From TrEMBL:
InterPro entries: CPL1-like (IPR048661), PriA/CPL1_fungi (IPR038955). Residues 1-17 form the signal peptide. Residues 220-286 form the Protein CPL1-like domain. Coiled coil: none annotated. Keywords: Signal. This is Protein CPL1-like domain-containing protein.
Length: 292
């Protein structure tokens, strides 16, 4: 139910950010040097960045945030819910901190131009480090083997669900800018720095989350995503702030769940809890299924 992508401090030539690297079972998250309960993935990333660790894991199950010095064995990574890297409500999302690379999505194949390089790193961090002088990077957990592609220009072809470590193919695509910014770009960067600073000071009270309203990147509302029926667990139109360029829905509209009786669902601790179904349906594992 959570994920999306890119947040944090800004540098002169690129955006030093947290970038998504996959979904894991919370039980398989590596042991961390620091842990906390976070309201959302952005809060977790900020916490781990402050803790000076290299990786962060945010559990959609209970909000547990684990800061680590490793992304763990690549064999622990599971299939995501879509090509944007959305992790399910029973998974944890994994992030590399302080990297200029941003996650672009998952694809069945890549198309490269210019210089290229292929390596077999031991970790996603190693892949991005190997591609430091290239604008494009692609990571494939193919048949339990990490394969890293670097290229001056690297595009994805054929969007597909982000694959698990046991898959026979599929690429996680990343990009960075190595171009010296123009005067306009520097002004835009200063504005993003200003917004990032505002984000660190929070737009809303500590118990609420700033969520975008519709497609307007300049408008937001403060929502209690732990209890709001129509934005349960996250923002329906994406988080407001420095992450808007990659903003996607991270919540669930509990009122739109199929076959649920009127007033038969609540949002508790960021999870939809169904208590009653429409006539002819039975409540099974928090879902309303048709009675035989």
């Amino acid at each position: 139910m959570i994920v999306p992508i890119i947040i944090a401090a800004l540098a002169i030539r690129s955006v030093e950010a947290a970038t998504y690297i996959g979904c894991v079972d919370p039980a398989n998250v590596p042991a961390g040097s620091s842990t906390t309960i976070s309201t959302d993935v952005n809060a977790c990333i900020n916490f781990c960045t402050t803790a000076s660790t290299t990786d962060a894991f945010y559990s959609n199950v209970d909000g547990m945030c684990t800061c680590t010095s490793s992304s763990g064995s690549f064999t622990i990574y599971e299939q995501a819910q879509d090509s944007g890297g959305t992790c399910s409500s029973d998974q944890a999302s994994a992030w590399i901190l302080n990297t200029p690379f941003g996650f672009s999505g998952c694809y069945s194949q890549t198309v490269s131009q210019g210089r290229t390089r292929t390596t077999f790193p031991s970790s996603p961090e190693g892949c991005l480090a190997n591609c430091a002088t290239y604008e494009g990077a692609a990571l494939s957990r193919s048949n339990n083997l990490l394969v890293c592609q670097c290229a001056d220009t690297l595009d994805g072809d054929g969007a597909e669900v982000c694959q698990p470590a046991s898959a026979s193919g599929g690429f996680y695509l990343y990009g960075q800018s190595l171009t010296e910014p123009t005067a306009l770009a520097r002004r835009q960067l200063r504005e993003r720095l200003r917004r990032a600073q505002i984000a660190r000071n929070q737009y809303c009270p500590s118990s609420l989350t700033a969520c975008m309203i519709g497609c307007d990147h300049e408008a937001f509302e403060c929502i209690d995503t732990q209890a709001d029926l129509e934005a349960c667990g996250g923002c329906m139109n994406g988080l407001y702030g420095p992450t808007v360029r990659n903003a996607i829905a991270t919540g669930v509209d509990c009122s739109a769940l199929p076959n649920v009786a009127l007033g038969g669902v609540t949002c508790t601790r960021g999870q939809c809890e169904v208590s009653a179904c429409k006539y002819g349906y039975a409540l099974v594992d928090n879902q309303c299924v048709r009675m035989l």
